[in-house]
Amino acid sequence: MKTLLHTCDEVSRRDFAKNIAKTCLGVSFMSALAPRGFAAPFEGSSKMKQAATAKRVIYLYMSGGMTHLDTFGCVPGADTMGGTKTIATSADGVQIGELLPNTAKTMHRAAVINSLTSTQGAHAQGNYFQHTSYTMRGATRHPTMGAWLQKFQGKGNTDLPGSVIITGDSKHPGGGFFEAACQPLILNDPARGLQNSHRPAALSESDFDYRLNLSARLDQGFQQAYEYKNVKAYAEAYKDAIKVMRSEDLDAFDLSKESETTHAEYGKGNFAQGCLLARRLVEHGVRFVEVNLGGWDMHQDIAARLPERCGDLDQALGALITDLERRGLLDDTLVVLTSEFGRTPKINQNDGRDHYPKAFSSVMWGGGIAGGQIYGKTDKGIEVTENKVSVPDFNATIAYALGLPLDLVLYSSTKRPFTVADKGQPITSLFG
């Protein structure tokens, strides 16, 4: 048996440990093991130091390439606008697409970045670049902002996950090459809460503790004999899972605790419920929550498809910003809305817009941002003409708000150096 275990690869050992623990404990949970590879200790000292203006982030990702000209990158009167009209907002001089009336009421707290540009024009590559500041490179999987935040500053609530991703994207970069402790919890359905997080009714507390102790004793020899980081990480993942199970803050995942009025304000559907869950989670100390809204890949019939997608976004987003402000959370919560790229200024032959990484828009609310402003300009949404912002610059701005050291170097298991936003420079003028 010992010879067999020595000859197993890492995945086989991991599966073995998982199945044994699952059988002994009578519970199951989503594996939080990282891919192979761990960050080396911090090196150097940060030259770019800043005081954090945000304690937490709610990151709203518009998957598929949100059309900038029809939403936040409007150019009133331009022929590139198609049939979309603009509306005034709560911020003087700031206009957005007419399909976002609830969001328009929040723009006095927002900064619109209209000069974003990306080097990646395909969905998978653009998505990855937007989340990590790095392009896809062989087997290296780079950490996303939630993982960097936890790596540098730890958890907000030690009993809950450090970051939560509400998405159906199984290829989300997550914690990248960081250790298991920095991996996010991924939820597919926010309305169902955190599944498999309660002790089975047929298992008494004393029996559960007995199984935990037995598992620990059985695992002790295994860990001593096979001192692999992933084996140790698996044990730590189980300890974290049990802390969550026994935490009083587990109710943070239970949307049934919210009133019917609140549910009606946010709306139905995964994105609306995800935004509501995000508010509950940040209230309970989770410092980074991402919520995904797909369906923006509109190569055909954009005029017919856009109202429904904007309607889903507008109701939930407007409710989220209003709710955070009402609860006194918006001042130190950075709400970010972004996408992998924009869509072509020219309507195509199928009455849609195609991929367009040359110029697109994103928005930030709260978290120290000086609201009611537009940063950057384009020529009718076609070319960036003022204050060009790269994807790493955009991510560096988020990191800057969180007080993360932008030039501190960490190493992957392959000894390659990485920083939180590559060579990106923050847009410091956005902050009040």
Automatic annotation (TrEMBL):
InterPro entries reported for this sequence:
Alkaline_phosphatase_core_sf (IPR017850), DUF1501 (IPR010869)
Q: Which Pfam families match?
A: DUF1501
Spell out the PANTHER family in the cross-references: BLL7424 PROTEIN, DUF1501 DOMAIN-CONTAINING PROTEIN
Which protein, by its recorded name, is this?
DUF1501 domain-containing protein
